[in-house]
Sequence to fold (257 residues):
Amino acid sequence: MAWVNYSVYFVRRDPFAQKTATPFLVFATGLQAVYVAALGIAFRHHLMASVFEVLAVIALALNAVYLIVETRHRNKSMGVFILPFSALFQLISSVWISPSREIDPILRDPLFGFHTGSAAVAYSAFLVSAVYGTMYRVFYRELRARRFGIVFERLPSLELLARMTLGAASVGFVFLTFAILFGAVWAARKCPSFWSDPKFLLTGLVWAFYGAAVVSQRLLRQSNNRTISITLAGFLVMVLSFVSLRLLVPAFHEFGG
Fold:
């Protein structure tokens, strides 16, 4: 229902949709939070034991990050592009999620929970930032070619899109920093050689890309084009790291379901 209202608002600028889209999403996100908490209590572990548990957490984090950016920049135009990801992830999770019978004990460790929760929010924020950044690059190219249409008439200005891209990237950078710190403290007790783990090294690389984007924009005042290129490169590294680690490289992160 929230996505329908955001869609109607994007196409028609309908006053009712404008008033109800955000409250519907806030209500839906509240329900998601209760659902995720209830699952964690029922399963008695952090929801990281299967891909379907992770998708439930990611769907919640996506909505939360989007609401933060929307509230900060007072623009509802991008909800139509973000909410399909959240709805799809939640649907897949709800259909196939089930209690995992054999759980690694680390999934009940509170510090590990802070680590994985922070990472989930970070990666969700990077996805939101990538959507905004992609729309910025497409919009920029179309403007230079003097091609216009209803989609581009409804999008925020290039400057606002750039600020929203960096805003989501900044949220992700902060939470990824927490994830690395919590993970390092936890891993130092369990696996002192964690610093050589491929996942740790690639996560550090992703952190460096987004850190460079934040620094270049906030401190060095680099152009929006360059900053957004850095964020998109960081997102590409993140995606490639997930794929390569899953298919090619063993790491101590492989556990549980």
The chain has a mean pLDDT of 87. The first helix runs from residue 2 to 12.
